[in-house]
Q: What sequence folds into this?
């Protein structure tokens, strides 16, 4: 699949090859739903907590005698049926996170990339950096590709200057090519991928990246 590479001014520069194994797959909606729900579950704090009758502050004495009053029997003021008493089967702190197979997560991310490529929501832009770290410089670049929509920029590496420049833009998200998030990627109305990031994505998700090799001399990893 060939796509056009644009300059930061929005002009066409050249074509680049997108690997069909990453950007041309059939969209697997089930896996996308699975991956997004996994990310949302892993972000849950699980700090909700209620007190049962053993944790509520109060006396253990009966509020009135057992018989002779004509009223219902009461144990103590901490009973769950009395206002201010304990909670029955209330939430307690828990961990909502769980893991999914790595192959399933990778296939879900490739499905989202394919979906964005097929719907023309994906734009490839030449590599750039914001040396000044100012928001207005980055906003001027994004404006050439449509501003105001939820936008995701996939970086070739962890560029702190670009991230600093976009920190004040509420509808902008940054992702590194090797640390994609299904939720942000799927709900991004526009996905901007740097040119080098496209090459890295092609290699990373097809297993073509160089792997560390141990030398016989010192056992250190060498690429």
A:
């Amino acid at each position: 699949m060939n796509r056009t590479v644009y300059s930061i001014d929005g002009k066409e520069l050249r074509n680049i090859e997108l690997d069909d194994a990453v950007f041309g797959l059939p969209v697997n909606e089930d896996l996308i739903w699975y991956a997004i729900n996994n990310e949302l579950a892993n972000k849950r704090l699980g700090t909700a907590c209620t007190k049962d009758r053993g944790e509520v502050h109060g006396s253990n004495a009966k509020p009135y005698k057992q018989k002779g009053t004509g009223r219902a029997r009461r144990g103590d003021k901490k009973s769950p049926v009395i206002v201010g008493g304990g909670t029955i089967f209330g939430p307690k702190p828990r961990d909502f996170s769980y893991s999914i197979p790595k192959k399933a997560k990778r296939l879900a991310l490739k499905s989202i990339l394919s979906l964005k490529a097929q719907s023309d929501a994906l734009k490839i832009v030449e590599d750039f950096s914001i040396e000044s770290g100012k928001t207005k410089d980055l906003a001027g670049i994004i404006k050439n590709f449509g501003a105001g929509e939820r936008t995701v920029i996939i970086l070739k590496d962890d560029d702190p200057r670009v991230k600093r420049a976009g920190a004040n833009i509420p509808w902008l998200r940054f992702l590194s090519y090797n640390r994609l998030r299904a939720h942000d990627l799927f709900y991004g109305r526009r996905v901007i991928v740097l040119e080098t990031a496209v090459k890295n994505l092609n290699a990373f998700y097809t297993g073509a990246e160089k792997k560390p090799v141990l030398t016989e001399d010192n056992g250190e990893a060498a690429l």
About this structure: The first strand starts at residue 2 and ends at 6.
